[in-house]
Each structure stands twice: as C-alpha cells, then as structure tokens.
Amino acid sequence: MATTKELSVEDKLRALYDLQLIDTRIDEIRNVRGELPLEVEDLEDEVAGLSTRLEKLQQDLVTIEDNIKAKKNAVEDHQAAIKRYTEQQKEVRNNREFNSLTKEVEFQELEIQLAEKQIKEMKASIEHKKEVISNSKEKLEEKSTHLKHKKAELSDIMAETQKEESFLTEKSAEYEALIEERLLAAYKRIRSSVRNGLAVVSIERGASAGSFFTIPPQTQVEIASRKKIITDEHSGRILVDAALADEEKTKMEQLFAKM
Fold it and tell me: Are strands 238-240 and 207-208 parallel, antiparallel or unpaired?
C-alpha cells in the first residue's frame, strides 16, 4: 500500500470520499439504534432507583414494627409498675408515702397513654407505607418489564448491526491512515460541524450535494481536474466531481456487500 506522502491529490480525494461513505454508513447504523441505548440506560437507572427506594421502605416497615413491639413491651412494664405501686399503697404508713405512690401511678398511666398514642400513629404509618410499597412494587414491575423489552429490542438491533459496524469501524481507521494528518483533521472538523456529518460531497447539477448555491463553471472544471483540494465557500465542505463520486460509490457498495 502506498504511503501517505506518495498519494496524489486525486488519491487523497478518493480516500477522503471513501472515508466519508464508510463513516456515513456507520452513522446510518447508529441512527437505526437512535435513542434506544440512552432509553435503556435511563430505564436501568430508574429501576435501580425504585429498587433502592423499595428496599428502604421495607426496612422502614421492619423498624416501625420493631418500635411497636418495644412500645407494647413498655406498656406492659408500665402496667406492672402500676400494679406494684398499687400494692405498695396498701402498706404505707402515712399520707406522704401514699401520695408519692399515687403520683408514680399517675406517671405510669400517662406513659401508657403516650405509648398507646405512638403505637396508633405507627400503625397508621405502617398502613401508609404498605400502600406506598404496593404502588412502588407495581411501578417497579412495570418499569422492569419495559426495560426487559427495550433491552431485547436493543439486543436484536445490536446483533444485526454490530458485526457490520465493527467491520466498517476498522475500514474507517484504515482509510484514515491513508490521509495526511492536516487533511484528516479538516475532514473531522467539518464533519462535526455539519448536521448530517457530510464533510466530503460531490457536485450535483452544478452545486454541492445538499446545497442550492451554484458553483462557478471554472471552479467545477478545477474540481474535475483533481489537481487540488477545493472546498465549498458556503458550507466549507470538501468537493469532488460526480464521476469520481460514482466510481467510489460503486467500489464501496462492493465492499459493503462483502459483510
């Protein structure tokens, strides 16, 4: 294979147009996938977030139920204390001791009321969390099913296109190696700045492909002579003549057919 320095201007133009055809085909393949990989990624994040939230809700439920048990045990302790203080009241020797025990009993009763109020609130919280958990499980199941279908869809598309894309990516690198660094940098810069990624276009009906601006006849002659790299003054795209473009399209079609 000829080295980069040995390439004539015509060879450079052919290499550039071939590279453009290959890169355009890669673009088409990726457009088939469209936003699907991002959709799958977003759904994966959403499912992970829902799973984490559901796990936390279920853990909260366990914690609340443990707290209810602790409060119920505390109520039993308070009731036992009331019984104990009531028995002690029967054996007191003076009013001061009786009143002191009475205050202890009242305190224990208040503690029981508070604990029972907290138990009631926690039971209401449990019912609310169970409802949230049920809704979260339903949403998680829905999103998981949607993710499964999207992954299958992406997998099918990848299976159809991955081999071709890998082949074309290798070919793209091969053709890039044929082109001098300065020219390749210009190609990539133009390609990244235009909406359709076309950095090298042919002349069609006296204008560059996709443009309505007519190219002067003298410039068209220069382009057809293939003696120098000429760009479109309006779009900045590199221009090639229609005959060269047709020849390279035929060559690339044969290359693509091998895949």
Answer: unpaired
pLDDT mean for each 10 residues of the chain (259 residues)? 66 96 93 88 96 96 96 96 94 92 96 97 96 96 96 89 90 94 95 91 84 86 94 90 95 85
Who contacts 215 (Cβ-Cβ below 8 Å, separation ≥6)?
Answer: 203, 206, 207, 208, 223, 232, 239
What is this structure's pTM? 0.60
Q: Supply φ then ψ for residue 92, to 5 degrees.
A: -70, 155
151-170 burial, b at 16+ Cβ within 10 Å, e below that, comes to: eeeeeebeeebeeebebbee
CA angle 129, 131, 135 (to 5 degrees): 115
Separation CA 152–CA 17 (nearest Å): 36
How far, rounded to the nearest angstrom, does the alpha carbon of residue 203 sit from its chain's CA centroid?
A: 40
Length of the chain in terms of residues written:
259
Residue 134 parent element (H or E): helix 95-178
CA 38 to chain centre: 4
Instruction: Report CA 196 to chain centroid distance, whole Å.
Output: 23
Task: Write phi, then psi, for 58 (nearest 5 degrees).
Answer: -65, -35
CA distances 151 to 32, 111, 140, 158, Å, are 15, 57, 16, 10
